[in-house]
Amino acid sequence: MTPAVDHKPGFLFRIFLPTICLLFLLPGASPAAVHAYLGVDGAWTDYPGGSTGSDILAAGEFRGGWERNFTDTHFESDISQVWRAKPSFITDPCRDSQRSGLLYLNERCTGRIDSHAVVDRLLLKGDMARVDFSLGRQPVNLATTYYFSANDFFAPFSEGAFFRQYRPGVDAIRLDYGPGPLRQFSLISVLSYEERERPGGWSRSPDFRRTSCLLRWLDNRMGFESVLLGGRVGDVLVAGLSGAGEIANWLGVRGEGHYGRDESGGGEYLAASLGVDHRYGNGLDWRLEYFHNGKYPDPERFKSPVPAANRAGRDYLAAGVGYEFTPLLSGQFFAAVNLSDSSRLFSFYFLYSTGDNSELSLTASRGYGDPTAANSGSEYGAVAESIAAGLRFYFEGG
Predict the structure, then answer these.
(1) CA nearest 57: which of 70, 47, 67, 69?
(2) CA angle in degrees (0–180, nearest 5) for 24-26-30
């Protein structure tokens, strides 16, 4: 069982709030816009194998923040308080996305509870002529495909995630230079941290030897977007590309991939994902994607910057269908298969708008496969059968 860890607010909490208050008083700024989010979820889960049985789990998140525009800059902040119960047999140490443990205002991690308040976003953005910059804790999205993103290195969503409103922020600096309206050259640097027990599971100070640095070139011609990128992500040198566009104004095509080589001599691999999609005028849409993991059959020889490339399967297929039944009710169906062990995952998701700023969700998922199989253990076969309901509230004000 995970030992109890209780991290309480320290000096950071005492300097963070006064700094925020001071920014409110600076001259030459527009009125501050505030926002808040509250989500509450409950789920019934039944774990495969027969030894662990079923469990009732709950989770909640409150997020509050504000943003303010100055003459040429923009400041944004978000504090997230997360609480979730864990199955009694899970020994995961409540590890968060890789970011500094310095910005955790409080935290409690036990064998059953994971609770933490963290500064999820704290960034300054601005523009100077053709150069835009953003500095601080911020989400970094490099994905082109949707389910299996081969080039999304920093806190990517899992393939079965339906709610993608908030991506965790990472500690980064980004410079974007636009030589033309449809071209962009970007420099992206993200700090890395060493694993620690707490807070957040990462060290407070950066490990500068493993700082990620990427160069990215984007070009959009005739409605087709192409991207080249290269650099270093952690201990891995990467070179990749991606593209997105439409064929005959009907079929959307997206693809991305990268070659990675471990600097410490662990090896090299190729990861790639390809997807097609289409949206009809009657509210129906579909999506089909394929992912190739070149690290198979030895995913442990070194750690890829892409979580999906560290999994036990070589090839994956995923399909999704969405439909808007009414202006207030929509549904999605998701299915994935690991072609290496033939395990499958199926999920349904329904979203009902209960008001201008509130919504109700219902999710059901089940994995198929032998959870005791050799080697990979049947990846999706080890996923719990679950039914979850959630209620979400949003608020924005000036």
Answers:
(1) 47
(2) 70
pTM of the entire structure? Answer: 0.87
**Which residues, in sequence order, are CB contacts of 245 under 8 Å at separation 6+?**
223, 224, 225, 252, 253
- pLDDT of 157 higher than 60: yes
**What count of residues does the chain have?**
398
CATH fold for domain 5-397: Porin (2.40.160)
Domains of the chain, by residue range, sit at: 5-397
Tell me the two tokens of residue 162. Answer: 């339906």
Q: Using alpha carbons, select from 177, 198, 82, 168 the residue that is nearest to residue 128.
A: 177
Amino acid code (one letter) for 209: R
pLDDT, tens digit, 9 for 90 and up, residues 318-335? 999 999 999 999 999 999
> pLDDT digits over 63-75, tens only?
999 888 887 888 9
Q: Return the beta strands (E) in the chain as ranges.
A: 5-7, 33-46, 54-69, 73-85, 104-109, 113-128, 131-138, 170-180, 183-190, 212-221, 224-233, 236-247, 251-262, 268-279, 284-293, 315-324, 329-338, 343-355, 358-368, 385-397
- pLDDT at 384 (0 to 100): 86
pLDDT in tens, 121-150: 999 999 888 899 999 999 999 999 999 999
Q: In angstroms, rounded to a whole number, what is the distance separating the alpha carbons of residues 153 and 243?
A: 17
Say if residue 199 is preceded by a cis peptide, omega within 30 of 0: yes
pLDDT of residue 197: 81
Closest listed residue to residue 256, CA positions, set 292, 220, 282: 292
Rounded Cα gap, residues 389 and 163, in angstroms: 12
- Cα–Cα distance for residue pair 278/158, rounded to 1 Å: 22
Would you give the end-to-end CA distance of the chain in angstroms? 46
State how far the Cα of 395 lies from the Cα of 374, in Å rounded to an integer. 49
Instruction: Give the rounded distance of the alpha carbon of 212 from its chain centre.
Output: 17
